[in-house]
Design a protein that fits this description.
The protein is α/β, with parallel strands linked by helices. Helices cover 32% and strands 22% of the residues. The protein has two domains: 2-59 and 363-400, Roll (Urease, subunit C, domain 1); 60-354, Metal-dependent hydrolases (TIM Barrel, Alpha-Beta Barrel), CATH 3.20.20.140. It has a seven-stranded mixed beta sheet with strand order 3-2-1-4-14-15-16, with no helix packed on it. It has a six-stranded parallel beta sheet with strand order 9-8-10-11-12-13. Strands 5-6-7 form a three-stranded parallel beta sheet. Zinc ion (ZN) is lined by residues 64, 66, 107, 315. Residues 64, 66, 107, 315 line the site of zinc ion.
């Protein structure tokens, strides 16, 4: 049975002008045809959804979430049993899908089992791309405290060093069926030790991570905040740079030359700078955050103006962020100077390509999966309509999300 959607306006995610009075034909999970109502004939007997007052657009994609996490507080995370975090993840996934996000990439925490539970229909949520984390001795993922105590959780991350040590560990991560290897090319804010301005991994170690990931068809996403580590990861050829706070011209040129995605995670940066204490950050972390904000001022805007490819990513790991992912769209416009259409592309086509799913989702084109939204309003004149789940009807693989 063909499902025909008549829409007042179509934003197909390919970047062209919107089409007024459009039709999309869906057969099963897949888009059969889409375009102007004058060109597309609705077959007899088709089930018709009249959305002639609404905007039809691709489902949104968040390339950086932590679906298992609901708090920045280390203590709270340490005292949460694994089973509880799975149930929390189910709740977070449901809220995220209802908010119009039909695909998300998890940047650490979720495993391939959650992806399988979603595919089996045991839980409701977006299509899930999962990653496995590795870090180096003395790096962000070592989680070693001034007391000498260290947190080790090999379910979620592993520490390794040297070309052969790294090779073996990447293979161990990949055998768990992840889609991406998540690495830390600089220190970070939340960890007790290290600095976002310190580069991690040698060029040889980075090269072997990428070699092993690519051999298995996996991507590499690099947490990188300071300039030196960002450039190392760009030179090595990662798929995306996460955060990318401090960028000089050389870094911007490398982004452009290599076609690598920048995932700016502005939403978490905004939350941490506005309410760092309540988000559970320590005083040490807060100081690191402040320095990063100061040195990174204007960098995202310069990257956007130069034409660096941007993909939407929020770094949602605090409870309220799951389901308010679309706040990132307005932030990318405010802080990067992106147009409304450019922000939407960052959250659809670019984000799909960044997840290595560009052939399947991200745009409304014949042959792609029917992940789409019917929006009560025009996101091109007011992007904030996408922040109101009650104004969005969500379809994933052709099926209405209840
Ligand atoms: Zn993250």
């Amino acid at each position: 049975m063909v499902h025909a959607i008549k829409a007042g306006r179509l934003i197909d995610g390919c970047g062209g002008d919107p089409i007024e009075a459009a039709v999309m034909l869906v057969e099963g999970k897949t888009i059969h045809a889409v375009g102007s109502a004058t060109h597309i004939k609705i077959p007899e007997g088709a089930e018709i959804t009249d959305a002639s007052e609404k905007t039809l657009m691709p489902g949104l994609i968040d390339t950086h979430v932590h679906i298992m996490s609901t708090s920045a507080s280390l203590e709270q995370n340490l005292f949460t049993p694994k089973a509880v975090s799975y149930f929390q993840a189910a709740k977070n996934l449901k809220r995220t899908l209802r908010a119009g996000f039909t695909t998300v990439r998890d940047a650490g925490g979720a495993d391939a089992g959650i992806r399988q539970a979603l595919e089996m229909g045991l839980i409701s949520g977006p299509r899930l791309v999962v990653s496995g984390c590795i870090g180096q001795t003395g790096g962000l993922m070592e989680l070693r405290f001034p007391s000498g105590a260290q947190i080790i959780n090999e379910d979620t991350w592993r520490v390794c060093d040297g070309v052969e040590g790294v090779r073996k560990t990447v293979r161990k991560v990949l055998r768990r069926g992840v889609d991406f290897v998540k690495i830390f090319a600089t220190g970070g804010v939340v960890a007790p030790q290290g600095s976002p301005f310190t580069a991690e991994w040698s060029p040889d170690e980075l090269a072997v991570i990428i070699e092993e990931a690519h051999r298995c068809g996996a991507g590499v996403m690099a947490h990188a905040e300071g300039n030196a580590g960002i450039k190392n990861a760009l030179r090595a050829g990662v798929t995306s740079i996460e955060h990318g706070n401090v960028l000089d011209q050389e870094a911007i040129d490398l982004f452009l030359a290599k076609g690598i995605f920048l995932v700016p995670t502005l939403h978490i940066t905004r939350i941490l700078s506005e309410k760092g204490d309540t988000a559970g950050l320590s005083a040490v972390s807060k100081r690191k955050e402040e320095r990063l904000a100061k040195e990174g001022q204007g960098c995202f805007r310069r990257a956007c103006e130069a034409g660096v490819k941007v993909a939407l990513g929020t770094d949602a790991f605090i409870a309220d962020m799951h389901g308010s992912n679309a706040a990132e769209l307005s932030l990318m416009m405010d802080m990067g100077g992106l147009s409304t259409m450019e922000a939407i592309i960052a959250g659809t086509r670019n984000a799909a390509e960044c997840c290595l799913l560009g052939d399947e989702v991200g745009t409304l084109e014949a042959g792609k999966l029917a992940d789409f939204l019917l929006v009560d309003g025009d996101p091109l004149t007011d992007i904030t309509v996408l922040q109101a789940p009650e104004r969005i009807t969500v379809y994933k693989e052709g099926l209405l999300v209840q």
